[in-house]
């Protein structure tokens, strides 16, 4: 049996089931009560006051209370919509009304599943390995590649080879589905095993399964070719696999040290958490409580016997990772998630590449939903079914997102009433529902995701994913695996009109709808109900317009000419002259594979051109002495370019930059979400970026 991890919040997994079941029964009974509009307003105010009172409380109790109050108010809204707002007047109006209702019901289901999934996130701690190294398992490290540049791959290979693990039990394998001679030569030169196959059947999953058939270690660690592990990756993760032999998977976060298109193009790096932080910082710990950790294809360790029990990595869908964990959990295997950033990778460089990656994820998750639906079949607990259902249904978001953008136009352009109720009645139900869900999600998501920004992420890619989701749902066998390119360059600023054209069209429609709404308010100011209807739809349209404008600015690609991104780090180093006689203490400001910037405590001689960089980190067993050329000296800041002599120097540089245990501790250094501040920041960023795009007359492609 698995022992309880050393986390004080761990409780019996039966408790949430009992509490949730009782809560649902009470909420279902209370939420259907019919009361007057005045009573509904009073009830909403009381619940809002209660929510605000507990919002600042730390711990699980306050969060669970907020979830319960939000669920109650949202249930009242959805029951009111289903029972009191449907009145059909012709097939076209009925179609529009039911379309909006579908989007709202979907959103409520996702909200409820999210609350279930995050009811009790498990903050799992590291589990120590036995002191006797003879009890440590042997490990095969798989690094699958296809068409990536060797300059990207070699960093991961050298870092994997340098991981802290007994040399006779660590076997690194470079899996080359591109069958490239330069990769074979590199593998031979650095002493790692090179594995190729005759075809590319089943893409990445096939590549991994082929490697499984040619290796034999007890555990398998998988790293995408751009994900560089810290030296302590294995010593900090494998303890759980040794302690509990029924754990099939331990997953860690995928952290990206380069900026993704949203961070770079919206200029929000350091101010807004990256898009991936919510999943790796909160969703996966929530999954872990329910024993439903998803395998994410990289930065993970798996047990070979568990893989053998399901005939290897899943090949039925293009998201082999999540499907593999689902199949293992159906067999009764356990899973674990360690929220420690133990590897760093490259984010997608452009919006187009980001969309391509999300297309594969969406297609794969919808394929699993159709071919191996978690709600049916044996082997899964109720919590696991809900977690997987939430993950799969999430990728249907493009369709409701587009519906919500277009819905107010039904009245403003076509005069169709798609909510059969007075504006006042709508507001008495919808405003409390929205307020409660925003406040509750803000409390839950904290520093991992800020309010409103998820709408920007979704809107930027929704139009591209919508047809993929529809096709995958009705024809799940269609679609092929596509590799996400990494390590590319953007040589100039430009507006990628191909990627933003759908949202530009949407923006124009929303502007026209806004004008129509203002005109309608002026013309109907003597008719209270019509005036309120125009006002309500105008507010809805204005919010949509802000989100769409933000999505358009994501397509304004910023110049990225550094092949090796610079990483901020303050490390104490010593610079020596070539003879080793003069010593110059310094501190690094940033590091990259190409060079580093340092601040010296004393001025360096003007004629000094070459130095030796000394760095020691006893905790991580890192000791380096690598030459570097001085490129620039200004105001005490010294810019250096590495002058590697061999792969040993290259490995030392990689260890210094990427191998430190604390290399990525900053990934969660964000303050808790403040919804109004988040909305204000979004509005300011959009205004500033639109000015830049217009005034610079940015070239378009």
From TrEMBL:
Cofactor entry: Mg(2+)
Function field: Catalytic subunit of cellulose synthase. It polymerizes uridine 5'-diphosphate glucose to cellulose.
Main location: membrane
PANTHER family assigned: CELLULOSE SYNTHASE CATALYTIC SUBUNIT A [UDP-FORMING]
Chemical reaction(s) catalysed: [(1->4)-beta-D-glucosyl](n) + UDP-alpha-D-glucose = [(1->4)-beta-D-glucosyl](n+1) + UDP + H(+)
E.C. number: 2.4.1.12
Entry keyword Repeat: no
Bilayer-crossing regions: 12-31, 37-54, 61-79, 91-115, 386-412, 418-435, 455-475, 504-522, 534-556
PilZ domain span: 560-658
Membrane topology recorded in Swiss-Prot or TrEMBL: Multi-pass membrane protein
InterPro entries: Cell_synth_A, Glyco_trans_2-like, Glycosyltr_2/OpgH_subfam, Nucleotide-diphossugar_trans, PilZ_domain
Protein name in UniProt: Cellulose synthase catalytic subunit [UDP-forming]
